[in-house]
Design a protein that fits this description.
Structural class: alpha/beta
Strand content: 15-25%
CATH architecture: 3-Layer(aba) Sandwich
Pfam family, one: Memo
Organism: Macleaya cordata
Shape: globular
Protein name: UPF0103/Mediator of ErbB2-driven cell motility (Memo-related)
Largest sheet: 9 strands, mixed
Order of helices and strands: HEEHHEHEEEEHEHHHEHEEHHHEE
Number of helices: 12
Number of domains: 1
Radius of gyration: 19 Å
InterPro entries: MEMO1_fam
Family: Belongs to the MEMO1 family.
CATH superfamily: LigB-like
Length: about 325
């Protein structure tokens, strides 16, 4: 597909949010949450897209953001935040998004892992706009075309875009935080990259970090523990299973805070921790290494969906971090 054909496709396609009227399970789980992406070639009329549930969603996000007690900072240039259903990770995610000062930000790069589609590359969205119950998030088509012209990115099939929840779950928070500000987004689906490609994409994207008008939202959950995830690492010296899981996660979080992509890769190789956003995080670490701006990652919140006490239990871990400019 050439650039002209790509532009035509981008103009034809929109992604809309469909908000379930019954709000079933109150954002219980990603596959049965209160909102899902709806592919369409037309704009759904506002009364059909929004219902009282949108007010409930907005109130929940406001409550979680306020409860963090965090102040917005212009030095925060990026976040790492979870992407599970909001009843599980919504509170934790707020500790990332509450740091954002939207005043001077005009573009958000959204990096999320691919859960359903295999690709050894990074893929770009073919949508023109993400419409959420809390506001529209137009996609920066100029940057999408600029990245596509490099020849290293593939285009994300619209069905893949619709099915992937890792970026989807960041959208309401972004719409809330940037409400009233003319921000555009650049969604990038990060595939199963090898170490060389993680470094390559990090170098390609590093120049965007040096533009203070750009922001980066990196999507990842942490340890998925239990037989249903085929991962049951347990180091008894830390006590109960959930304490072992936390120790494992915090070891990885400490390494991420150093900004050392190679050490993070060694950690993953040694423990095989089921961090689903390992590739987006690794790309982000390489971006920070290759940019001119000095940025430090600090984790602010850690939670687990439940406390595992027996080998029959299961849980998913969530962690939120802010990446801030330092002198």
């Amino acid at each position: 597909m050439n650039n002209e054909e790509c532009s035509a496709s981008l103009e034809r396609v929109q992604i809309e949010w469909l908000f379930y009227a019954d709000l079933r399970a109150k954002y219980l789980h990603v596959v049965d949450n209160s909102f899902r992406l709806l592919m369409s070639n037309y704009s759904v009329p506002l009364p059909l897209r929004l219902n009282p549930g949108a007010n409930k969603l907005g109130a929940d996000l406001d409550g979680w953001l306020s409860a963090t007690g965090l102040a917005k900072s212009p030095d925060v240039r990026g976040v790492i935040a979870p992407h599970a259903g909001y009843s599980y990770s919504g509170r934790c995610a707020a500790f990332a998004f509450a740091n954002i000062d939207p005043t001077n930000i005009s573009r958000v790069f959204l990096l999320g892992p691919s859960h359903h589609y295999y690709t050894p590359k990074c893929a770009l969205s073919m949508a023109t706009i993400y419409k959420t119950p809390l506001g529209d998030l137009p996609i920066d088509l100029e940057v999408i075309e600029e990245l596509q012209a490099i020849g290293k990115f593939e285009l994300m099939d619209l069905r893949v875009d619709e099915a992937e929840h890792s970026m989807e779950m960041h959208l309401p928070y972004l719409a809330k935080v940037f409400h009233g500000y003319p921000v555009k987004i650049v969604p990038i689906l990060v595939g199963a990259l090898n170490s060389q490609n993680e470094a390559m994409y990090g170098k390609l994207l590093a120049k965007y970090v040096d533009d203070p008008n750009n922001f980066f939202s990196v999507s990842s959950d942490f340890c998925h523990w239990g037989s249903r995830f085929n991962y049951m690492h347990y180091d008894r010296k830390y006590g109960a299973i959930y304490e072992s899981i936390e120790a494992l996660d915090r070891t990885g979080m400490d390494i991420i805070e150093t900004g050392d992509a190679e050490s993070f890769k060694k950690y993953l190789s040694e423990f095989d921790n089921t961090i689903c956003g390992r590739h987006p995080i690794s790309v982000f670490l390489h971006m920070l290494r290759n940019c001119s701006t000095k940025i430090k990652i600090n984790f602010l919140q850690y939670e687990q969906s439940s406390q595992c006490k027996t080998m029959r239990d299961s849980s998913v871990s969530y962690a939120s971090a802010a990446a801030s400019k330092i002198d």
